Amino acid sequence: MDIGVIVKAALDVNVLRSEADGRISIENIPLVLSEYDRNAIYEASKISESTGGKVYIYSLLTWGPMDRKMRDFENVIREALALGGEEAFVVADKSIHYSEPMFTSEVLSRLIKKFGSPKLILSGEASTDMTSSTVAPYLAAKLNYNIVTYVKEMSLKNGYIEVLRDADEKLERLKIPLPSVVSVTGEINSPKLPTLIQIRRAFRKPLHRLELSDIDLSPVFSRYEDYRVVTIKRKNILLEDESLENVADKLIDHLIQEGVLKI
Amino acid sequence: MAQDIGIEHFIFVKDIEFIVYISAVISIAIFLYGVYLRMIKWFDGFPSLSSLNLDLKQFIGGSLTQLKVLRKPAVGSAHALVFYGFIILFIGTILRALEYDITMKFLGTRFLVGSNYLIFKLFMNIGGLIAIIGLVALLIRRLGFKSRYLPDRPSDYILIITLLIILFTGFLLDSIATASYRLGWIGYFDFIGVSLAYILLSLNLDLTSLYRGLWLFHMFISLASAALIPYTKLGHMVFGGIFNYIFRRPYHKSAFKGYKDPEAIVDEKGYLGALSLKDLSWKERMDLDACIECSRCTDVCPATESGKPLSPMHLILDLRSVMHRGDFEGELVPKYIDPDVLWSCVTCGACVDACPMNIHHVESILDIRKGLISKGEDVPEDALNVSYNLMRYGNPMGYDPMDRVKIIEEISSESGVEIADESREYEYTYWIGCQTAFDPNNRGIAISTLKLLRKAGVDVAILPDEVCCGEPARRIGDELMYKELVEMNKENLMRYRFKKLVVNCPHGYNVFKHEYREYGIELDVIHHSQLLSKLVREGRLKPVKSDTKVTFHDPCFLGRWNGVFDDPRDVVKSVVGDSLIEMPRNRENSFCCGAGGGQMYYEVKKGRRISSIRFEEAVKTGAKVICTACPYCKVMLSAESKGEVEVKDISEYLSESIDRE
Question: Using CA of residue A65, residue A70, residue A73, residue A77, what is the dihedral sign?
């Protein structure tokens, strides 16, 4: 059975750079494959290994400017292909930079419908840069698929999937009929990092670069205007005393003073 | 009288002399067939000598002189006695045959007569005697003084005893001949033959029959042993002692196999390096047959000593058995070789240095690692992280590359050394390197070195930005990443004009010096220890003397691989003089810190930490300071110290002594 994976070329939060006024300088931050997407691709390739079928990668470039980001974006898609994707359909169009989840999911749903239309779509539980966790549910709605999120175990049965869903306070075991969109957590598997050689080998796999007009969409959407870092100032107070008990007492006093603790 | 002094050929056995010719032909045929059987395995059916380098100098200097074997004086001397003894006997036997079969038959003359013969006889006596002494010594060593990992099987004893039997029967034959015709004139020139002859004569035996029987026995056992050389341990003489010394790898010992166009190979084959035996070079396959199983490599291997699964000798023997089984296509890992065996290697080169058969274990290990990296399987997760970090951030630790630019600016302002300007030419460019730049505890190495260079008036600059030199990528087997880094560095380095590149990290020093050449980049590279020792020697740096006890730890890639032993010591001695104490294992016998081969960034969590073994050794010297000349070694040894000993780079130590003035 064919499986689709939606992936994001996310801002590398390890090398976040901001201006003096707190504005994030997006143009200077490299893009990486969003962390949980790696799990989604790995899971998809595991399933397709046992059931046959293709793994499609769907993506769009949400960050600009094009000339600074296109190379990174392509590398991310190659990496997704190296990890187990077999064919990629991506939209890179400067008119859709900084799009928000609603429009992003619209682009993806059209890509999926037009190319391959697999009945099972996997995604990471959230992107590592924006962490909205909303693209997968929006996409399911637009495709008219079922949705299940935060899946930490899954297996494909005849016509449905069985999942273990991590709902924070409890674990849910669910049967979801296909077609379905599934967002997976980082616990579902432990994918390996690809080496340059594997990425190089993935160059043979087809990567289709499309524009918005190719999926009959016009760039009408709301977009983000500004990104800022929230700076948290640490107080850097070092508590020292003769015994651990005394240190604990001091800590409690501090917490009461700060209003964190109430007695 | 003088004309009568000579050999009476085939005395007592004239009627059956034809047997020796038939047997010799059979023996030579079996011998050659054995060599052929081995060779077709190296060449995998297709003899090709394309990557061969003939090196007679190495053959004479390393093999014929027995210098490599003599690195272990006791057992080496015993081996050398056997070696030279048999060479003398072999030459003597050839001379005899030459006289009887060539000069007598075709020219009607003899040359082993008169004083020639006497000298010949004396040499044959000495040859036989020293071979017996050597063999007895080897037997005694096997019985009581074995090294820890030396294999010990019945066949090892049978071999020694067979050789002893050949020698004893030879002497007995000689003594009967002596008794029959030369006892009157041979004298001390046949001292063993004469002594034995007197004993035999006193026994009243039928010497003629005894001679005939012994002659057949001696001939058969000698020719059989010669025939079996390629099929037994004795094969090391041919495959190791001769072939593996005459044919050399075509590059420096610490440069590893590169590729003209690795991308093309990946596109065509899908992988680099070796997945199976057929991917190794013929020289690497010949290495497998060259092994004499002396365990010298395993005896010195830090991975073995610390309890990790690698034993270089057993790795070679395991690969050899795969070759003899004829499985050239089968994947080596994990079927035949446990991946941890390969990942345990710290590429310190102790095995290569110790091997008397010139085997390059590390090359094969790195080739198989390249295969594993290509597949992305059986690779430690942290090693894959190194690859990924290099790909994303240009350094193995995954630090933000923008931070490097800031760090370089800080180093420049603190040391007063300028950041290179494209329009100017400098005498030296100083390469900081990832470990020195990003680790705050190592940054002092760069600052000290640069301050010292500035103080000595050296014209030096640093680069505004760097990326990894590629060494970690190469050691974990990521050749494609390595090549990409080489190309980035080429572009970066070519932008500036300088005569020499100074490097404080021996790992960087080694790649820049030997391994960049494979991708067409020739650099004049100097290690900071070499430059600092020169400045001290020239009086341009004048350290204040101290009597602190200091020991020096040799970094493998500076010392053993590149032969730089004295320069870093001279730097330390310029401060502490005779208070430099050596560890028991020093110079080429030094013991790795544990960080080589990429293991700075990953760990095979089995057995002890290699660094703790080395640290204990250093502490036992009573030194207060451990000096080293490598940022990796510094990190590893510092991590073991709980404050009892300071670990410093030689540049930091020298700099402190100069600041004291």
Answer: positive
B564 vs B251: CA distance, rounded Å = 18
> Is B402 in Cβ contact with A17 (below 8 Å)?
yes
Residue of A192 and B51 predicted with greater confidence:
A192
pLDDT band at B119 (very low <50, low <70, confident <90, very high): very high
All structural domains of chain A: 3-215 (3.40.50.620), 233-263 (no CATH)
Task: Point out the residue among B263, B392, B400 whose CB comes nearest to the CB of A32.
Answer: B392
Q: Do A195 and B376 touch (CB under 8 A)?
A: yes
pLDDT of residue B46: 58
All CATH 3.40.50 domain ranges of chain B, comma separated, are: 395-535, 541-659
CATH of B541-659 among 3.40.50, 1.20.58, 3.30.1400, 2.60.220? 3.40.50
Whether residue B358 is predicted with pLDDT greater than 90 in this model: the reply is yes
Q: Shortest CB distance from B480 goes to which of A32, A193, A197?
A: A197
Q: For residues B415-434, give the mean pLDDT.
A: 95
Return the closest-CA partner of residue B600 out of B537, B506, B514. B506
Locus of tokens 């992305």: B376
Domain spanning B258-379, CATH architecture: Orthogonal Bundle (1.10)
- The model's pLDDT over B165-218, given as tens digits with 9 standing for 90+, comes to 999 999 999 999 998 888 888 889 999 999 999 998 888 888 888 999 999 999
Is residue A129 within 8 A of residue A24, CB to CB? The reply is no
Task: Considering the domain delimited by B395-535, tell me its CATH architecture.
Answer: 3-Layer(aba) Sandwich (3.40)
Q: Is the pLDDT of residue B51 over 80?
A: no
Poorest-pLDDT segment among A155-159, B454-458, B464-468, B557-561: A155-159
CB contact under 8 A, A201 and B391: no
Contact present, B629 and B533 (Cβ < 8 Å): no
- Chain A contacts to B (CB-CB under 8 A): 12, 14-15, 17, 30, 32, 192-198, 200-201, 203-204
The size of the A-B interface in CB pairs under 8 A is 56
* Distance in angstroms (rounded) separating the CA atoms of residues B297 and B312: 6
Chain A residues lying within 8 Å of B385, measured CB to CB: 193
Kindly indicate the confidence band of residue A237, based on its pLDDT and cuts at 50, 70 and 90.
confident
Residue B409: the pLDDT is: 96
* Assembly ipTM: 0.82
Residues in a beta bridge with A154: A163
CB A64 within 8 A of CB A14: no
Look at B384 and A14 and tell me if their CB atoms are within 8 Å: no
CB burial class (10 A; 0-12, 13-18, 19+) of residue B622? Answer: exposed
Q: Do B400 and A15 touch (CB under 8 A)?
A: yes
Q: Which residues of chain B neighbour A193 with C-beta distances below 8 Å?
A: 381, 384-385, 387-388
Question: pLDDT per residue over B584-639, tens digit each?
Answer: 999 999 999 999 999 999 999 999 999 999 999 999 999 999 999 999 999 999 99
The secondary structure of chain B in percent helix, strand, coil, rounded to multiples of 5, reads 60, 5, 35
Q: Looking at domain B2-244, does it have CATH number 3.30.70?
A: no
* pLDDT band at B437; cut points 50, 70, 90: very high
Give this prediction's pTM: 0.90
Across the interface, of A17, A32, A192, the residue whose CB is closest to B376 is: A192
The first and second tokens of residue B390, run together, are 């290099």
Nearest to A126 by CA among A39, A28, A31: A39
Better pLDDT: A263 or B221: B221
Residue A33: its H or E element:
strand A31-33
Q: In this complex, which of A14, A193, A196 lies closest to B400 when CB atoms are compared?
A: A14
Summarize the confidence of residues B80-106 as an average pLDDT.
94
Distance, in Å, from the CA atom of A204 to the CA atom of B270, rounded to the nearest integer, reads 11
Nearest-Cα residue of chain A relative to residue B481: A196
